[in-house]
UniProtKB/TrEMBL annotation, chains A, B:
Record-given protein name: Crp/Fnr family transcriptional regulator
Organism lineage string: Bacteria, Pseudomonadati, Bacteroidota, Cytophagia, Cytophagales
Domain Cyclic nucleotide-binding: 37-121
Domain of life: Bacteria
Annotated SUPFAM superfamilies: cAMP-binding domain-like
InterPro entries membership: cNMP-bd_dom (IPR000595), cNMP-bd_dom_sf (IPR018490), RmlC-like_jellyroll (IPR014710)
Pfam families in UniProt: cNMP_binding (PF00027)
Amino acid sequence: MIQPAELVSFLSFLQKIQPLTPSALEAIYSLCSLIAVRKNQNLQEIGMRCKTIYFVKEGLARIFYLKGGNEVTEYFAFENDLIIRAESLFTGKPSLKAIQALEDTVFIGIPADQLFSLFDTFPQIERLFRKIIEQAYVHTVNRMETIQFHSAEERYAQLVEEKPNLIQRIPLKYIASYLGITQVSLSRIRASIR
Amino acid sequence: MIQPAELVSFLSFLQKIQPLTPSALEAIYSLCSLIAVRKNQNLQEIGMRCKTIYFVKEGLARIFYLKGGNEVTEYFAFENDLIIRAESLFTGKPSLKAIQALEDTVFIGIPADQLFSLFDTFPQIERLFRKIIEQAYVHTVNRMETIQFHSAEERYAQLVEEKPNLIQRIPLKYIASYLGITQVSLSRIRASIR
DNA sequence: CTGATTATTTAACATTTGTAAAAGGATAAG
DNA sequence: CTTATCCTTTTACAAATGTTAAATAATCAG
């Protein structure tokens, strides 16, 4: 049985987005499970249908996929970040993307179908979820702008500024593909900054 | 007074995403207005807060913004496409983006605050809107992947395949910035394809 | 139709980024 | 400690894209 204390950070994360009544909170609480994944292990493999919404309770993870034999990092999730493979969850297709723990990581998982079936009983939960997607959408639009119209050097500088600890915690090669460049190119950029 | 026939395409567009009861449809219907904009005129200027959700009934439009004095096209909307400046609508900040008609265009507009206030009475409308955002989100994630990991030539080829008539209807310079490259570069790509 | 304006292409050159291979550092297992 | 492995940097060269300017081509207003 999960101790309520284990979920405090997650539930308060949700409450900040959309206040929830005790019964709605309880309904979400009852769907949560904890999953511990060791460093460099995959929580979800490529090719599985994504049916779970994850939240990083402790640790660090990434979503990545394969492109011409190379791993491409799409997203990093730190403590208190959601991690959702939207392109599978919302389309029902198998995901081409994997979720990997980059440190020993504890995830909170919620089965998506069970969560979605709460929507009819608790419109406030559907509202919560709508707001989460809105935020993710705005974030993605802004990220696209950054990728499309800034140089790799600017993108790196911006990333370092936004998430300084990312550089310490994540191998360079993962950061490079997240920025849309090669590892060699990123190394060159770092050399030119010094 | 708007004739119901004028809104058939829009309402059936919505119904395909989420079936709606007659009273919910009527509620949406009563919020709609028609806006005709001449070619090359702006429906919304840069700097305004975005408080309206638009749908292209006839014609063609784009969202663009300024980057170092140059116009950058973010999105093209054809007949029966929604056009929403999400980054302003969902954050309340003034939009840095303009909406411009690229042909004589008729928009259907819905005031966002009035639409959102229907959510409490009609959870199905909130659901409709959630699904719309989900679709937009998935679309944007896929587009980002395309931009980040395909060459400009591949991106152009893909665009031509997906929307062949886009090439005929839209000036090259707008397409170039949509693809994230310069006009000169796109012209070169076209020459190399022939 | 004509001139003016705008859109597109071409050319020459600079810069950025990619590719492949090797060298240097860091880390983990025995 | 030593070796093996993995990560990062460096080097040399190739390819892609940007920049600037000029040359065509297309479009629009009178």
